[in-house]
Amino acid sequence: DARVTQTPRHKVTEMGQEVTMRCQPILGHNTVFWYRQTMMQGLELLAYFRNRAPLDDSGMPKDRFSAEMPDATLATLKIQPSEPRDSAVYFCASGPGASGAYNEQFFGPGTRLTVL
Amino acid sequence: GNSVTQMEGPVTLSEEAFLTINCTYTATGYPSLFWYVQYPGEGLQLLLKATKADDKGSNKGFEATYRKETTSFHLEKGSVQVSDSAVYFCALSTYTGNQFYFGTGTSLTVIP
What we know:
The structure holds 2 protein chains of 2 kinds.
Chain A: E1 5-7, E2 10-13, E3 19-24, E4 31-38, E5 42-50, E6 53-56, E7 65-71, E8 74-79, E9 88-95, E10 106-107, E11 111-115
Parallel strand pairs in A: 2-11
Antiparallel strand pairs in A: 1-3, 3-8, 4-5, 4-9, 5-6, 7-8, 9-10, 9-11
Chain B: E1 3-6, E2 11-14, E3 19-21, E4 23-26, E5 32-38, E6 44-50, E7 56-59, E8 62-65, E9 75-77, E10 86-93, E11 100-102, E12 106-111
Parallel strand pairs in B: 2-12
Antiparallel strand pairs in B: 1-4, 3-9, 5-6, 5-10, 7-8, 8-9, 10-11, 10-12
């Protein structure tokens, strides 16, 4: 049963520290998405990739956030330095990037980040 | 542009009641439409989808019909259960599948 995996599942850190979240997309999927979910803002798209190339990262605060895909099996989201307002659940999702019946996104379980 | 508007929550229903969660969309081109469900502490998971006008998606007793004339994709279930308590997200995707647009989510609580 293919799934998107994310690590860590939970992270507590102090303000100013660097945080790296990792995602393994489903094998064969060529689109990868990073979302942030908070009670106040709901689900926000931060960035997405197609064939490892960033297509849109306009939802990300550029000064502290960065997203990369070092290879097809790994996507990373980094925050440096972290701030308390970054506390949220971060989801990774992957998809086949296809149209019609094959169009779908599969979500990972999320990383719950708390910045003190 | 592309966007999704869904019914504000929270919604509280008694077990076996009828459920409707409204969703309307604006889109350029011919989008696919989706309902995702998020159970507490979990990621979103696909509930059902429809890829063209008049298609009906269905799963676990839930249904939604892609109505192009009213740009709607309302979620319905005839008899809800306590286990249906979750947050429901309506979404659309562009033809290429490159990007998804999610609604704000509707929280449903079903009481025994």
